[in-house]
């Protein structure tokens, strides 16, 4: 275990001592705990609330004297006496059904291997905690222990959740002798009623199978009686599958309005009118890597081509009008772009990152687009993320974030203060930056690949607790106040204000196509474009046609324009576009 260099200032320090005299153990004098922040290497439950301490590092704290371990938020609730008297200790299973907190059951099971059930079973630790079923992969050796990365999570609050035995009519490819020991857990996936997924689980015996089914069923009844309803934010809708050829190589996307989306792929930039399945190709650009809509400047910025150049054109081009493309010559090799306003919205600003450099431009549009570079920034190392907050460009790089003023010259602001001892672990364990979020004018959330940290405008810690990831994240997207954390097997949704983990979307191999995470590509055998619809917002939303209608459709070029296509069942002599 790795311990933090700074103690939590919660109890008077003490060290437990044992005194022996003539081989008789004298009673230890009761004192108070001495807690250290700790990184656990196996799944560990809090001794106070019994919930799992989820996270990759620094999941909780441990008393060095008696070994009492708990969440940072549970320290003040913990018994003050060290060691904890027997009558104050909680059992391994203790569930608060009203709050939905605590561990109800755990044991070893077998789940299908990543390559599928036909390849065999994977040993796993299963823990029923906080009305979720956690599954942790394990090696097959008897003395092996799981690591802290969660393999799968099924939320019992899901409206489609159920648990049942497996029967031959389920058509699950299992051996006949395994069937009596199998059960399945079902939950929703996409919004279509039939689009649910089930995880077959194999117990070590029929009795253990019956126990699992009974426990999960009873807990689900308790959950429904407590009226602890579905807290999910997003409903998933399948927009298009790979019957629309554009989807296969899509790398980036943007929502233009409630009827149109822009898709960038190997072949170029396309606008899809989702209500009538009309498709317009924009210009002759190839290999679109990023699309940035700039509504305040009525422009669109794209990174395109093998050379990764930044190019600009007016928003009116998305209607299919012919227009000139404005190329920023010095941006060759750029990897990301962001936009915003400065001088209280008077000027449109574009920032383009190339390795460890950032070029800052003011954009102008009259008859033609023009630009003026007003600043060039040198970052300590390669830029990994970039955004504009309140006339400052925020830059993420390995183990750090900086804010650079855009309106004037000046030194950058450290978003992680070098003299804050409780934040020094970031520099000691180099970790990639994923994104930063402006919670308010005085608070930020800095998301790294191992942890999320809240800091104030001075770069000092603003909250004692940190944001924990259930599994190693690949991407983070933000749509206030919800953070979407993408990992190999799921997307976890977290409310950044309350720090609550409120939804798990069980999609494997899914990648975001825009910064808010509304449009996503699912990279399975059938590639799909998935729309995350926010249930909590009122107003316009994208309305996609039923994908079941796609089977007979083809992408057909209009006779009147080589840039316009329809995705429909062709009539007459429609020309099927090739290579898209």
Automatic annotation (TrEMBL):
- Looking at the record, the residues that make up the Phorbol-ester/DAG-type domain are 32-82
Keywords linked to the UniProt accession? Kinase, Metal-binding, Phosphoprotein, Serine/threonine-protein kinase, Transferase, Zinc
Reactions mediated catalytically: L-seryl-[protein] + ATP = O-phospho-L-seryl-[protein] + ADP + H(+); L-threonyl-[protein] + ATP = O-phospho-L-threonyl-[protein] + ADP + H(+)
* Record domain PH: where: 102-221
State what protein this is by name.
Serine/threonine-protein kinase MRCK alpha-like isoform X2
The species this protein belongs to is Balaenoptera acutorostrata
The keyword Cytoplasm is assigned to this record = no
Specify the taxonomic lineage.
Eukaryota, Metazoa, Chordata, Craniata, Vertebrata
- What PROSITE patterns does its record include? CNH, PH_DOMAIN, ZF_DAG_PE_1, ZF_DAG_PE_2
The CNH domain extends over 246-520
Instruction: Please name the CDD domains in this protein's record.
Output: PH_MRCK
